[in-house]
UniProtKB/TrEMBL annotation:
Record GO biological process: cytoskeleton organization; filopodium assembly
Protein known as: FGD2 protein
Matches recorded under Gene3D superfamilies: Pleckstrin-homology domain (PH domain)/Phosphotyrosine-binding domain (PTB), Zinc/RING finger domain, C3HC4 (zinc finger)
Native organism: Caloenas nicobarica (Nicobar pigeon)
Entries under PROSITE patterns matching the protein: PH_DOMAIN, ZF_FYVE
Phylogenetic placement of the source organism: Eukaryota, Metazoa, Chordata, Craniata, Vertebrata
Cross-referenced Pfam families: FYVE, PH
Primary location group: cytoplasm
Residue ranges occupied by any PH domain in the UniProt entry: 113-227
GO cellular component: cytoplasm; cytoskeleton
Keyword Phosphoprotein: yes
Keyword annotations of the record: Cytoplasm, Cytoskeleton, Guanine-nucleotide releasing factor, Metal-binding, Phosphoprotein, Repeat, Zinc, Zinc-finger
GO MF annotation terms: guanyl-nucleotide exchange factor activity; zinc ion binding
Subcellular location: Cytoplasm, Cytoskeleton
């Protein structure tokens, strides 16, 4: 009974804090309307950082998402929760952590956060020294007109995942892309840029390599990982 009481008290504390944050931060949508009516989304170009954790957005490290409950622009980690929304037929929708706590009364999933941290907590220098391939690349935005350079690594001990760092000596990867099942596409050279893509369903990533040789090496490495080939022996067997 004591354990149950403590859990209920902690849930109520989180819920009260969530209500306070919503009332202070989302004047366009009243707290009692949260989940019952569609919010007005904050426009992407009005914010430069996650409206929950305050981390800055950019195409590699942190991409923009909208909470379907309050309309805030948030990063992937802060919106890695789902709750039923009445205005959408009680279907599960992506929501931010604050709205998740308010709508469900549950404490945020701490174990999920720990899991995400563990996946990305690989030092770039150490991983690069034991990698199948690593180098600087540019990842273009959806329009193909701009993008951000980063340090890209396929580790030997995790050969089915592409890790993306902002710099070669960062202590933590900003994001990762599971390569299994992706298709590797060659693109014609344009404006002296050596272009290639990773594509799966509606998800497409476009990369720019510094040289044609480096582009070919990345295409070969990514194609092996996408096919589930994790070592040289398996590659020979496949041939």
């Amino acid at each position: 009974q004591d354990a149950i009481a403590r859990k209920e008290k902690r849930s109520e504390t989180f819920k009260t804090a969530a209500v306070h944050g919503l009332e202070m931060g989302t004047p366009a949508l009243k707290t009692e309307e949260l989940g019952r009516r569609a919010p007005q989304w904050v426009r992407d170009n009005l914010v430069t950082m996650c409206m929950r954790c305050k981390e800055p957005f950019n195409p590699i490290t942190r991409r923009r998402h909208h909470c379907r409950a309050c309309g805030y622009v948030v990063c992937a980690r802060c919106s890695d929760y789902k709750a039923e929304l009445q205005y959408d037929g009680n279907r599960l929708n992506r929501v931010c952590q604050v709205c998740y706590v308010f709508l469900t009364g549950h404490v945020a999933l701490e174990e999920r956060d720990k899991k995400h941290k563990g996946i990305l907590e690989k030092e770039a220098g150490e991983v690069s020294s034991r990698s199948l391939l690593c180098s600087s690349l540019q990842l273009l935005d959806k329009n193909g007109k701009g993008g951000t350079r980063g340090w890209f690594v396929i580790p030997q001990d995790d050969p089915l995942v592409l890790y993306i760092y902002a710099a070669p000596q960062d202590v933590r990867a900003h994001t990762s892309i599971p390569l299994l099942g992706y298709q590797v596409r060659d693109l014609p050279q344009g404006d002296s840029r050596h272009l290639f893509q990773l594509a799966q369903s509606q998800q497409v990533y476009t990369f720019v390599a510094d040289t044609e040789e480096l582009k070919r090496r990345w295409m070969s490495a990514m194609a092996r990982s996408a096919a589930g080939i994790t070592c040289a022996e398996e590659e020979e067997d496949a041939d």
